[in-house]
Amino acid sequence: MLIVQVFNGLMEGMMLFLIASGLTLIFGVSRIINFAHGSFYMLGAFLVYQFLPFLFDGTLAGFVIAVIGGALVVAAIGWLFERVFLRHIYQSNELMQLIITVALVLIIRDAVRLLWGSNDVVVSMPPELSNAIEISGSYFPVFQFAIFGVGLFVLFMMVAIIRFTRAGVLLRAATDDRGMVALLGVNQGRVFAAVFTAGSFLAGLAGGLAAPFGDINYLLDTNVILEAFIVVVIGGLGNLWGALAGAIAVGVLKSLGVLYFPRFAMVLIFVIMAAVLVVRSMNLFRNESRGLGEL
Amino acid sequence: MRGLVGSELKAVRLGVAQLNKAGGLLNRKIDLIVRDSKTKPNEGAKQARDLIVNEKVDVLTGVCSSAVMLAMTAVSGELKTPLYSTIGNTQKANIQAFQPYFWQTQANALGEASAAAEFVALHKNWKTVVPMGFDYEWGHTSVDTFVSHLKRLRPDMVIAEPLFPKIGEANMTSYITAALTKNPDVVYEAVFGSGLINLVKQGKSFGLFKRSNLVTLMTVDVMQSLGNAMPDKGVAGYARAPFFELMGNPKAKAFVEAFKAKYNKYPDDWAVLGYDGLMFYAEVVKKAGSTDADKVIKALTKVSYDGLRGKGMTVRALDHQMSAPVWVGVVTKTGKYPFPIMKAVVRVGPDKTVPLAALVKALRAKAKSNN
Fold first, then answer.
1. Could you report the per-residue pLDDT of B76-111, keeping only the tens digit for each?
2. Residue B316 in contact with residue B354, Cβ under 8 Å?
């Protein structure tokens, strides 16, 4: 009983990590709190719904192509948004960030309603992923394992890129000291654009992957952004490992909370979040500044 | 506007167009003004006040959220302007917070949850049930009513502690696995829309429908959205106005055909309810001979309405609750429609869905003593 619930929490945590990874990456480098991250997630899901009928619908290959294609389109939209709007406000205060990214939330929401309507839409699960492994009467869905695997792969790739590539060196440098990076002749604008595009890609990827798991509608953005923020607040904005720890903590706590304290499951997560904030504000976290730069 | 409200609005637009084409109401053209409460009670109350004071509307309707409905009914009572609900169905608006300018045209949450309990109780081989509901007014009311009604009908059944996911929960897996740890024969769900779709899709991968049964509010929009993703067995639903059960009624058939011709889709429950509510109001106004609020309310309980859901429907004076039925059946794919429908449907009549007068009075007395 406990094992199933912990397993379930881990799986949910990995899904949350997939959503939060892009958000924390963008903040870690460019200090932009992207409120439109949930909107990019939602776009990823709707694009999979749009692409699937043309791509070997009902097959795993079709699903994978649709997810990657959708994430690439979202990345392109993210890149365009960064180049047209965001790049002008890196030096501005947080209020301007809030206004511009929330404006994007509203624009994407209306565009989604215009394109796909206000009714719920559903994407079929590829047959290869729709089964479950049965162990002593408990079901462990294959889809959850697949999401866990993709989450680990994304984490591995992010760590590898940040640690071992020139782009990663620039990212870490930009996280630590943006001014110094600029002084050394690196085009900061390109770094920020690349990071925002990558973060958008991750949001689109998470949305696309989650598409067959549940319902898709134009209110998905706010549902997702709230959970992503809880995760990054617990883990520390801009901290990749923190995002992973926060996501797993939220997933497992929710899962165990539902089993043992069903009436307080959601409250529990907010209590933990509040406790983390209080402890952090008391400066008790030694590794407060640990972020992408220390990977 | 959200899906279910959107389809209700489509049906109301169709009804207004039909009424206007036939000369309007009392030879006056009907003007439909649409506002969005954003599912926030204070916004709903603000919009209601503005519509009454500035737009001078004769009647207010709609409202998806029960919480918004309660906020709006307070304004309706204060400014003495009729409000009728065709979606939100908390019984509090009829009982504890009742004011005479309000009525509702579908079975309220008490009636619906009671119908679900009746259905569960009929299955003598079901011994354990896990109740679950969205964590807000309607979900809690439905679960509480279901539990207390079932305890009376089947004292032998084991009823697990209820689970309350947040409204529209995207990831229901923790709740599904927590429910399955109780080895339930049936899971009762007071959820709807996207949360219900998530529950069904995710429940399938956890073997929920192989290991247990689901009894839930099952409206046509959800069956349309789920399509082939609906499990082949294990889902039973209760519905407020499933069009496929009403096709024997010429009025309902004509509405379904007109709706399909105009919007190229079958109407869901919300559409049927929106249309039926509007046409009932039209009958009441004709009976009153005026749109004056007090005259309308006086005529309200005197109209016997032959609508889409049946003949001779009336609004009771005690709580302004319409004698509306609930349909309960097993969800299945028939091939007759491009989405699953319900079969072996039982129409639970108003004798079982409308709360007894004694219960209404007792609940009011309790609310009064608590205040």
1. 999 999 999 998 888 889 988 999 999 999 888 888
2. yes
